[in-house]
Request: fold
Amino acid sequence: MTEYPTIPYEPQPVDRAAVVELARAEYELLKTRRSVRDFSSEPVPREAIEFAIRAAATAPSGANHQPWTFVLVGDPETKRLIREAAEHEERVNYEGGRLPQHWLDALAPLGTDWRKPFLETAPWLVVVFEQRYGFTDTGEKHHNYYVKESVGIACGLFVTTLHRIGLVTLTHTPSPMAFLTKILGRPENERPYILFPVGYPEADARVPDIRRKSLDEVMIEVTAPSEL
Reply:
């Protein structure tokens, strides 16, 4: 069997006696996270977004191929083009019959519609692309594995990092999203995955009054194996 080089695992030291309290504190922080649509135009340092992307890119991935591209957009004209294209697609979704009625009914309590002003108001847009396949250093095409799972985990870390540093975002997925490939000039091996507006919340920002499922609704403990 071929042996590959390894390095020692050096995690951040943690007081193991306090692991429950650490977990509780993390939960208390993350339960305040919300998807926000009311963004302030207050500038956010580019370096803060870069570090959030660095954090996201530490995610595990299939065969460690890291099949993601984070496209950072701060240019007002590019943001305007993205908003116009997104609103066009969303208007067809909401008013043109593309979304079935049961989907529209599910969205109604959230108060969303085809208008997406936050795509221009937020100081930054971060568009994440999944790389369906990649290339070696010599330019040869190679397969990527568990692409959607890998990119999804990276996006989760991105959202978490933004919340921890006091920024807000929204997982915006206008469908179809091919316009992002064209506007941002991405190659054919990449496909749009999520569009994140990023910034500070508006001073009077409001969010829908929702509840999250309880632990009993999302976790089941298995104490013995089922019969095969």
The mean pLDDT is 95. Residues 76-95 form the longest helix (20 residues). Residues 35-148+168-202 form a domain with the NADH Oxidase fold (CATH 3.40.109.10).
